[in-house]
Structures are given as structure tokens and as C-alpha cells.
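Q: Give me a protein?
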Amino acid sequence: MIVNIFVFFFLFLMNTGTVVIEVNGLRNTDGQLFISLYNNAEDFPEVDKEYLVIVVDSIPGTTVTVRFEDISYGDYAMAMFHDENRSGKIDKNFFGIPKEGYCFSKNFKPVLSAPDFDDCSFTLECDSVIMVSKVIN
């Protein structure tokens, strides 16, 4: 019985990896970053529907790297916003265009609307995957 539990646990661990997100080009070190990982196309990129979120409360510089560890293999997308004034939301202008920095995985740059999951998705199928995204200001 103990052996079966160990084998199951070991097999579970074998199907997980690490997603490393490097965000560069931040305008400043004010406020905080919300870096969100999504695993569901219907939820992307809605706030409060994330799979996992890392909040960087003290921004060390214009480039920040975070690690999502023990993530099950599968398809994911990342969205980040730089909450410079710590309002808890991304500030937008009259036309709905963000006034604070943001970015998506695969460096996707939206034109007229938020991207779809397919625009930004990547597959975690090994030990780790590294995504580098430049902030859109």
C-alpha cells in the first residue's frame, strides 16, 4: 500500500514543471506587479479568474523574474499589469486603453481588444519553460 502511494506521488511529480516569466521594460519601480497564469481559454485574461497569481510587492528594477513551480503539464497563457498607483486594478483612459504597463506571454501586442488565449498560449511539457515579455507602456 505504501509503495502504491509513493509510485502515484512520483508519477504526479513527473508531470509538473516550472514556468519562469521574465518581464522587462518596466517604466519604473513604483507600485506592484500582478503576474497571472491562466489554464483556461474562457477565463483569459479576466481578473479574478486566474489559475495562479504572483504579486510582486516590491519591484527591484525594470526587469522582474518570477517562477511558478510544480505546474501540471498543459497549455497556459500569462498576463501581467503594473499597478503603479496600487489601486488594485489597471487604470485605463477614456477609450479603454491601459495607462499602466501590461504584457502578455509570447509578447502578444493587442490592437483593438484584449487577446484570446490562443494568441498568448504556450505549452509546458518538460521540466521548465521560460517566457520573456516586454511591457507595453
